[in-house]
């Protein structure tokens, strides 16, 4: 099958494209720079250089494929303006879905985020839980998802939406900070450490994407894809410390002063294009609970996470050590 993957220079898109190639599919990727592609040369790999914000580049990439995985997303940074998030998460989605309609693409899987649910007040959240996006990333991801679902339903496009929980595994650097935090002799934690942090190992997430693209039951549906286990932050940090053979001593610190400092730093630094020394959303990591129910994905997709949380964390820690990151 000929398949298009956007966002293939990112952690998730890279692993999805690699798995599809390993499964024998012809894989086309749309990337802004070929130099950033980490996939090994492969006879079934077709690299197209272009931007999801460019309608013509998207049409050219979609033409001739049978399936589309939209993994492209805007990476959070101080130098990114709100319009960038909107152009990629909303305008780019429109370009893809309009092209999918024009070229009769058989299946489309769109990657959203559990962040659309924000701080989960009544855990665990399901696909039907209230929306509460907290920042421009989450708000534009929600806008793009809702537009895609409405457009697909109106035009008969076989669309499925996946909302991943926190993604981790060998090759990921976003959660390296969490491992470094757990590796300290004394681990400072803002708040009480009782908030939940739901994670998904990359191989399980890739399997969830593939199932969403294959099962007829997935058409028109939204699925939260996460791991089978869900720990509170203190337990998660203690587990990582145990894996790293580090002392397990956590020091809880009131979060409010850091929340205020983060908000102030963002207001001053971001308009100037300067990375703030502290972000409000990084403080919110310690105080906002993220706990999700994956029962729907199990029932309709036959999704079953294969990697236990401790096993996945051990594999990730091994890779970090191999890269001299820990």
UniProtKB/TrEMBL annotation:
InterPro entries, sorted: Epimerase_deHydtase, NAD(P)-bd_dom_sf
Name recorded for this polypeptide: Nucleoside-diphosphate-sugar epimerase
Gene3D superfamilies linked to this entry: NAD(P)-binding Rossmann-like Domain
Domain of life: Bacteria
Residue ranges annotated for the NAD-dependent epimerase/dehydratase domain, each copy included: 3-226
SUPFAM superfamilies, sorted: NAD(P)-binding Rossmann-fold domains (SSF51735)
Native organism: Desulforhopalus singaporensis
Pfam families: Epimerase
Family, per entry: Belongs to the NAD(P)-dependent epimerase/dehydratase family.
């Amino acid at each position: 099958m000929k398949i298009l993957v956007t966002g293939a220079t990112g952690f998730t898109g890279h692993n999805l494209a690699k798995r599809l190639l390993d499964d024998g599919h012809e894989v086309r990727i749309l990337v802004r720079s070929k130099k950033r592609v980490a996939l090994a040369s492969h006879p079934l790999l077709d690299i197209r250089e272009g931007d999801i914000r460019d309608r013509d580049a998207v049409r050219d990439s979609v033409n001739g494929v049978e399936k589309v995985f939209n993994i492209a997303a805007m990476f959070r940074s101080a130098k990114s303006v709100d319009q960038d998030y909107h152009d990629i998460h909303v305008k780019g989605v429109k370009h893809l879905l309009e092209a999918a309609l024009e070229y009769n693409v058989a299946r489309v899987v769109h990657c959203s985020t559990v962040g659309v649910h924000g701080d989960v007040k009544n855990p665990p959240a399901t696909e039907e839980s209230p929306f509460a996006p907290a920042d421009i990333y989450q708000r534009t991801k929600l806008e793009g998802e809702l537009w895609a679902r409405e457009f697909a339903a109106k035009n008969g496009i076989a669309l499925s939406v996946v909302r991943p929980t926190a993604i981790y595994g060998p090759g990921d650097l976003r959660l390296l900070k969490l491992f470094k935090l757990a590796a300290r002799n004394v681990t400072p934690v803002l708040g009480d450490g009782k908030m939940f942090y739901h994670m998904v190992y990359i191989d399980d997430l890739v399997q969830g994407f593939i199932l969403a693209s294959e099962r007829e039951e997935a058409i028109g549906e939204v699925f939260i894809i996460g791991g089978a286990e869900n720990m509170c932050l203190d337990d998660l940090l203690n587990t990582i410390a145990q894996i790293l053979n580090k002392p397990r001593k956590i020091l809880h610190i009131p979060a409010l002063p850091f929340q205020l400092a983060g908000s102030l730093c963002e207001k001053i630094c971001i308009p100037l294009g300067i990375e703030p020394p502290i972000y409000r959303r990084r403080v919110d990591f310690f105080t906002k609970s993220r706990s999700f129910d994956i029962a729907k994905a199990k029932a309709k997709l036959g999704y079953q996470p294969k990697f236990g949380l401790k096993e996945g964390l051990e594999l990730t820690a091994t890779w970090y050590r191999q890269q001299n990151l820990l």
